[in-house]
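Run log // design_07
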């Protein structure tokens, strides 16, 4: 589509400089269009959307998806019936593509080796090739683990070395350090990215070597733009890293909570016992009163023993 647009603009009879300007503008436009990529997460299925409702209305047609000009999927329809399908690596399109017009390509699992690939859908009529009906670029990403920072003191000098380590992500991230919210001096940071064996995912190790006093906060940030991912680890130059402090805080909080709850429970139980005692006392008193009255009544009813003796 982009190429067509550019050729159309270039063919117009205009002054050379205007042509050049148009071409430049066109290039910008094309670059802008190509920026719109589909993001695939490593190991997850990816869908490269392509809708072409008018295609299903034709008879006897075949389509081909190409990855960087190499065919990865081909399908032929004969009067609404799928005659032949061929694919590489189990890629596919919806089975109802001709009726729905949904010719989106599904990749079963995104892999870093697909990163930056251009996928295009072509309509084939015999050996005839058309301009692509859909063109899509694919970007691949994977999340990094939260980085871990550890400090290594050297005995010979006052310099401290901090190591920041993370792995499992893609593409290569931007790693930067801050010492008390300020950039460390030039040349103090050294970062290495190596591929994890058996995958194209990265293992990142960054090293900061600085001469700093105690009681500063050092942070290591791993920025992975395609994934919108910014991971930071803060390290406090003291015996306890910040993370441990947070857990200590949690510990104190939970202890206080436990004590408060215990006090409340004891107060409740004590109050209940108190209530019970009061009600028992009252019952006893009323019982006593009753017994007393009963005895009085009984005495009144019973004939005086002395009188019977007499
Ligand atoms: C489609 O192709 C088949 C043979 O491949 C042919 O018999 C049929 O007439 C064709 N249909 C149309 C509508 O062109
Ligand atoms: C096209 O097909 C895919 C895969 O079946 C589906 O996920 C997607 O929602 C469909 N798109 C539309 C617009 O129907
Ligand atoms: C390709 O198809 C178009 C129409 O779809 C036709 O004009 C053109 O001549 C065809 N080219 C070849 C080489 O068959
Ligand atoms: C990443 O590299 C570091 C330093 O080379 C190494 O210690 C670590 O084991 C590696 N991690 C993985 C997951 O391979
Ligand atoms: C990243 O953020 C942009 C803009 O907020 C959003 O369009 C895009 O889908 C996000 N990507 C991911 C992987 O979350």
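design_07 sequence
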């Amino acid at each position: 589509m982009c190429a067509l647009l550019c050729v159309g603009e270039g063919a117009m009879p205009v002054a050379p400089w205007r042509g050049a300007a148009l071409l430049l503008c066109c290039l910008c436009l094309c670059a802008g269009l190509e920026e719109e990529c589909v993001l695939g997460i490593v190991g997850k299925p990816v869908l490269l959307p392509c809708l072409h409702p008018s295609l299903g209305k034709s008879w006897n047609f075949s389509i081909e998806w190409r990855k960087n000009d190499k065919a990865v999927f081909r399908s032929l329809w004969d009067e609404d019936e799928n005659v032949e399908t061929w694919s590489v690596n189990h890629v596919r399109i919806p089975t109802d593509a001709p009726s729905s017009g949904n010719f989106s390509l599904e990749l079963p699992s995104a892999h870093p080796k697909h990163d930056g690939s251009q996928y295009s859908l072509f309509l084939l009529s015999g050996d005839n090739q058309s301009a692509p009906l859909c063109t899509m670029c694919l970007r691949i990403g994977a999340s990094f683990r939260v980085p871990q920072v550890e400090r290594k003191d050297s005995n010979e000098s006052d310099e401290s070395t901090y190591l920041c380590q993370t792995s499992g992500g893609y593409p290569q991230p931007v790693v930067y350090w801050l010492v008390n919210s300020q950039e460390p001096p030039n040349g103090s940071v050294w970062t290495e990215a190596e591929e994890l064996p058996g995958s194209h995912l990265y293992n990142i190790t960054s090293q900061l070597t600085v001469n700093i006093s105690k009681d500063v906060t050092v942070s290591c940030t791993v920025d992975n733009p395609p994934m919108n991912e910014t991971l930071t680890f803060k390290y406090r130059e003291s015996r306890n890293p910040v993370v441990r402090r947070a857990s200590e805080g949690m510990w104190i909080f939970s202890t206080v909570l436990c004590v408060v709850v215990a006090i409340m429970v004891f107060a409740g139980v004590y109050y209940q016992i108190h209530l019970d005692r009061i009600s028992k006392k009252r019952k006893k008193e009323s019982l006593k009163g009753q017994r007393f009255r009963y005895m009085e009544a009984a005495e009144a009813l019973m004939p005086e023993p002395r009188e019977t003796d007499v």
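The radius of gyration is 40 Å.
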